[in-house]
# Entry
Amino acid sequence: MRGTIIVEGDNQGSITESKNTFNLVIKEKKVISGPTTIKINQGDEVTIKITSDEAEEFHVHAYDNSVELEPNKQATLTFTANLSGRFPFELENSKTEIGALEVQPK
# Structure
C-alpha cells in the first residue's frame, strides 16, 4: 500500500503543523529536526513531511508506504494508520533506521 506522495519545493519558510502532521529534516542520515517517534491513534490520517540533504527513499515498515526524497526538497507522505503497534521508519536505500511510528489501538 502506498500513500499519497507530493514533492514540493525547498523548505525555506515556516510551516504550521496540524495535529497529525509531522515535519522531519534529515541530514547525513539522521533526523536533526522533528520527532524520531511519531505517536498517533489507530484510524488517524498522518502526514509526514520530509526534507533530506541527499537522495533517498523514506519508508514506513508494515504499512509499506514510501516516498522518494530529492536533495533539499520537501516530500510528503500521507496515509491512514489502520494498523496498531510500533513500526520503524527508515531510509530504505541505505537501510538506516531513523525513527518509529507508534499507533495506539482504538
In short: Residues 31 and 100 are 12 Å apart (CA to CA). Residues 1-16 have pLDDT under 50 and may be disordered. The domain at 4-104 is CATH 2.60.40.420 (Immunoglobulin-like). DSSP finds no helices and ten strands in the chain.
